[in-house]
């Protein structure tokens, strides 16, 4: 998303894992995590720029695709929270109850 | 049903091994994402919000029970136990791993299926009437031409990199159940004054960002010229369609820019040297494909859907289901059974693996092993003996597949929306579920009569909202999901685009607006008048008054 970000807005780096498309976030230790609350939050451009080479290297190494920087709400205690419906759904999954593949009972007998 | 010959099978098998190699090279780093993305899209594989999505082609919406079991197997083995039938008569899986995709394609190929040309800027799966071959009002089975078009367009070297995607639909009946006027090319079969069968060729229809009803390019095209004429259209489009702006790249924009008369002149000029060449279809070619769609051997039977409904001995709940979901068949004593994938509060078009298997079993028992997928996201058993309806109905009911609402207000068409789709601006499914709950009273739904609600989560219009009797478009306004409502759209032979009523509103207000429109319709309709006809007779004004009264 080429969205213009405020220079001091809290931001995280996100991507999808290449092999299965799962949503991942860049953690402080340079790994990718599926948990948003483990994502490293940066609030200035130099910190963000410093994270980029490692992320790009993982793109090159076929670990992740669709690299993106997104703004978050940041509570230092609770960790980052998604901003907007799209990122909320990326973080938490669909908002609907997914169909469950249950065995189907035999037909009720005719009246 | 059409069966692959050795050529078809080799083509599909080769594509599986080619894609297996491409995936392996991507995972090893030999291909970059930029290099790989067009290759995966050519095999129907998208990257969505949470996973890869695989779109499997169901040519002209026809499936065998064996194929349906393979679709169930894929849902269970490689996905989360369900799949989503789409408005283009395909099926999509939402939770696919890239690493599994080659195995899935191999499983599909083993049962004569594939995901070829379900994405990318090529000619997509040709869609058709889900009642093809069985509809009482049909001239000829449109799947014969659809299959000829499939063979012509698959891997067509000249049309593999078109300016944009290209969708063709064909109907063989005067009642258009294939929405041919909102496709890049629509083909409407009819007879000329001598009784010969041919096609009205409609071009430049489409929805999305720029909705346009298609225009008649040629009122009557003899069958033998089908391929040469479409090749000429494709060449004019491929040469002059815009490649500088993807939003202006569809053929509809070219037709509008040139005008239909100039576009026709160019097509005719292109066609002249082609028409009697290698693409001409002699009657033998038609006959050879026709043989592959030979009607099954029906029994000599009597009875009609109408008499069954009227029979006082019929269980009232069965009668209600038959009335809503079973259509007249061309053969006496048979019916076309429409299976609703729109149970109350369910996700439109979704079916679990067990439900797919149940439908496959019912097809074997009661429909000569054949199933159809509709662009309204339902399924069809096309050849059911009327005497089998009670047993079929009871079994479907046990699988939550006997909701008597086909064509009614709760038979809502909805795209996956922002719950899955990376293009979406707003969610579609929760609104569809809420409306389905709101209109869950089937007695009232039948009193309201035929009414199509179509909900798209973005302007790309996968749920065809422009041609819904009530259309709903999800938009994102400063982070808020809002829904823009239109009235008066239709996708049948009298195709029309809906007109916007009122500003975009949050979901709960959209539900109230729609409920208000229904109340208004019930109050002002003439006896027996359909919703769409009331809107056409009176315009949107009386419905807008409902809004003002509510404000």
TrEMBL record, chain A:
Database matches in InterPro entries: DUF2849
Pfam families xrefs: DUF2849 (PF11011)
Protein name (Swiss-Prot/TrEMBL): DUF2849 domain-containing protein
Species in which this protein is naturally found: Roseospira marina
TrEMBL record, chain B:
Record domain Nitrite/sulphite reductase 4Fe-4S: where: 119-272, 411-547
Keyword Metal-binding attributed: yes
GO MF entry, a single one: 4 iron, 4 sulfur cluster binding
Keyword tags: 4Fe-4S, Heme, Iron, Iron-sulfur, Metal-binding, Oxidoreductase
Keyword Iron-sulfur included in the entry's annotation: yes
All residue ranges annotated as the Nitrite/Sulfite reductase ferredoxin-like domain in the record: 52-110, 347-398
One Pfam family it belongs to: NIR_SIR_ferr
UniProt xrefs under PANTHER family: BLR3264 PROTEIN (PTHR32439:SF9), FERREDOXIN--NITRITE REDUCTASE, CHLOROPLASTIC (PTHR32439)
Protein name stated in the entry: Nitrite/sulfite reductase
Organism for this UniProt entry: Roseospira marina
